[in-house]
Amino acid sequence: MEHLPGFGPLADRFDGFILDLWGVIHDGVTAFPSAVDCLHRLRAAGKPTLLLSNVPRPNRDAQALMQRMGIDDDLYTDILTSGEAVRRALQRPPDLWWAELGQRVFHLGPERDRGVLDDLPLISVPDPAAANFVLNTGPDDHRNPSDLAEFEPVLAACAHHHLPMICANPDMAVIRGGVRVLCAGALAERYREMGGDVRSLGKPDPAIYQPVLERLGLLPERILAVGDALHTDIAGAQGVGIAACWVLSGIHGAGLRDADGRFDTVRAEAEARNAGLAPLATLPHFSW
After folding, report:
1. Which residue from 63, 85, 257, 266 lies 20 to 30 Å from 135 (Cα-Cα)?
2. Is the separation of the CB atoms in 47 and 15 below 8 Å?
3. Looking at the predicted structure, is the pLDDT value of residue 176 above 80?
4. Please, which residues have CB within 8 angstroms of residue 148's CB and are 6 or more apart in sequence?
5. How far is CA 154 from CA 109, 117, 237, in A?
6. Beta carbons of 280 and 243 less than 8 angstroms apart
7. Distance (Å, whole) CA 50 – CA 7
8. Mean pLDDT on 181-188
9. pTM for the model
10. Angle, in degrees to the nearest 10, between helices 59-68 and 82-91
11. In whole numbers, what is the pLDDT of the chain averaged over residues?
């Protein structure tokens, strides 16, 4: 595992890049200037970049958020969110599980994620008792987003009515504006423990990489994925034969620093090894 101070040497070794958003490009509130600089440099070098994110919103909503942060659409080649993947699966069911969901959906998540359902032939209902299935986009705005116990009653109600669950973000947690909050993946995992039937779309599922590879038009060995989460970004890339660069300052950052606040690469190697993963390289931050 290489431990590099910047991304420049890796940029020269690959023809295209899959880049995570949260923890790499921005923190959900603010864009990282060094990451925006990397996007500018990759664009200038003619290197295609596809932003692959487990955010439970359609592509257009993720792009609108980045535009407000000062990240223009022309700084990257394409984007695919897990929310967009869910929309496509609801529009064109890939298998019988999706085809048999029904029309009445209970949305477990904040209003800002409702774009996943826009213009779909579905009926939103306010209570699990009236639903055919539940769309889980993560903690809603009416509960403590850091406390899983807050969601026990609503998950229990969904389980009582045997609702299949779509998880639109497999992440367990994210750092939003410097604060660690739960994601839809944590709610989905608890729902499975209750006996619930769950389908997740997003990293690390190999299916999410098929349209990515088609869009980049490159062989997997010519692509590098950059992400901050071992169990989604790094595991997902490794699962489809794509080399990965691990950004240490993201979701795992607090546990990887030594007493002086520097990243401990020995500790990082041990954590990756314990997860059964082998990133090609690490970076302190996504900076050139």
Report:
1. 63
2. yes
3. no
4. 182, 186, 187, 190
5. 11, 20, 34
6. yes
7. 16
8. 93
9. 0.93
10. 150
11. 95
The whole-angstrom separation of Cα 111 and Cα 140 is 8
pLDDT tens profile 251-271: 899 899 998 899 999 999 999
Amino acid at 256: L
Q: Which helix (H) or strand (E) holds 266?
A: helix 265-274
Give the pair of three-digit tokens for residue 280. Answer: 């090609």
Q: How far is 234 from 8, CA to CA, in rounded Å?
A: 20
| DSSP-derived secondary structure for 38-100 | HHHHHHHTT--EEEEE--SS-HHHHHHHHHHTT--GGGSSEEEEHHHHHHHHHHS-SSHHHHT
Structure tokens at 224: 């590098």
User: How many CB atoms sit inside 10 A of residue 288's CB?
Assistant: 16
Q: What end-to-end distance do the CA atoms of the chain give, in Å?
A: 18
CA atoms within 13 A on the CB side of 55: 30
Pairwise CA distance, residues 215 & 157, whole Å: 40
Q: Are strands 223-227 and 16-19 parallel, antiparallel or unpaired?
A: parallel
Neighbours of 102 (CB within 10 A): 13
The residue type of 121 is P
Q: What is the DSSP string of 174-215?
A: EEETTEEEE-HHHHHHHHHHTT--EEE-STT-GGGHHHHHHH
Q: CA 158 to CA 281: how far, in whole Å?
A: 42
